[in-house]
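Exam review. A common question shows you a sequence with its structure tokens and asks you to describe the fold in words. Practice with the pair below. Do the first one on your own.
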Amino acid sequence: MSTERERIAMMERIFGRSAPGVPLGIGDDAAVIDAREGSWVWSVDASIEHVHFRREWLCFEQLGYRSTMAALSDLAAMGAEPCGVLSSLVVPDDVDDRALQELARGQCRATLEVGTVVCGGNLARGAALGIHTTVLGTVDRPLRRDGARSGDEVFVVGASGLAAAGLRHLADGTEGEPTAAMREALKAWREPRARIEEGMAAAGRAHAAIDLSDGLAADTAQLALASGVAIMLDPAAVLLGLPADVAGEVGADPLDLALYGGEDYALLLTAPPGSERDTWRRIGRCVAAEGMAPAVYLERKGTVEPIEVRGFDHFAPKT
């Protein structure tokens, strides 16, 4: 079976990337559609039971909030302002009215926090709980993955690896009261925040952006490949966003967790030196891909080593 990326590429060849009025189609965090003023930005995301979550890991209100923020994060990566959300729910028989109300309240809380609303959708019956969220936004000049330039610095807005630590804690079924650091990690997974304000502010400063959903290594590699640059990451800077004791609590190497964790919904940005804001954390730099592949590398005391690109893949073989 092909990987998720290979299947997307296969479907892209069938659908095509763009058309009149669609300057950016398949291949970025969202599609861009020309409007009379600025551009529309559209994206869709799915959260499926037994794939993205288990019910015992979070309440229905958190589930509604989490799935909505995950979809809105694609707008943040494009620098777009949200202007509407559509929600299509597949509801099994064991989800009663009270649970459905709580899920909807979570969706409502997420949209209120970013200044938009759920304005429609669909409700259907099915074997497993599924939440399909379509988000619509507007932007004058959308951020893209293919805009990074040699000389840009690389920044992260938000944590990298924290949500993965929380997920590992839940998957391990660890009993007892979690530490303060682990409570932070659990909240990062259960209630991520789409960086809408930060994305909108970056639209006038950054050259490229992507949201961190599949893991820092995998998502940075996508941006590097789209832009045709090599990205050098400073491992010490990468680790600054992750409390060291959190990795230890789940028996993980801190750098491995930060690079490959995923589901942080932080923003990765590239911008000229001196463009950063207070919330941006510098973790590396872009260089011309001369004599090396457009990819991601770790830079340690003058030595450079390529990063293994791995992250979440829906169609990876089960082990």
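Now try the second one, then compare your answer with the model answer below.
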Amino acid sequence: MDLILWRHAEAKEGGDPAAATDPGLSKRGLQQARQTAEWLRLQRLPKVTVLSSPNKRAVQTAQTLSLPIQIRTQLGVDAGIADLLGAANWPDHSGAIILVSHQPALGRLAALLLAGAPADWTIKKAGVWWFSNRVRHDETQTVLRAVHNP
């Protein structure tokens, strides 16, 4: 399984990012999202499923991939690690899952997957952290494949 954590791109100023008044992406944010989407397309991921927070800035980020998007309320700004892992069905899903969501949950999940314990790590806006899991010598391992920032 490939699990890609994608933080939404830069949002416009104003509004309440946690509420329905989420202003969406800024011009710079849209450019960031497009750059990251292009990088993701170049990776030729197998069987990609895109799951997004319902917040406008996350949905707009995900839309730059030009793939079908499934909106998941559990990926919203109040998400926790368990919400992200449950939505992704990590590590049992076959193919690639791209989670478009928010800090601090994305950073905490990255820390858990890489270091074995949640910590307040930061994923930059429009940045992705790409993880895979594999079994080697009867042991399940998590592999960090790439980190990409626009």
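Model answer, second protein: Residues 27-42 form the longest helix (16 residues). DSSP finds four helices and six strands in the chain. Full marks require stating both points clearly.
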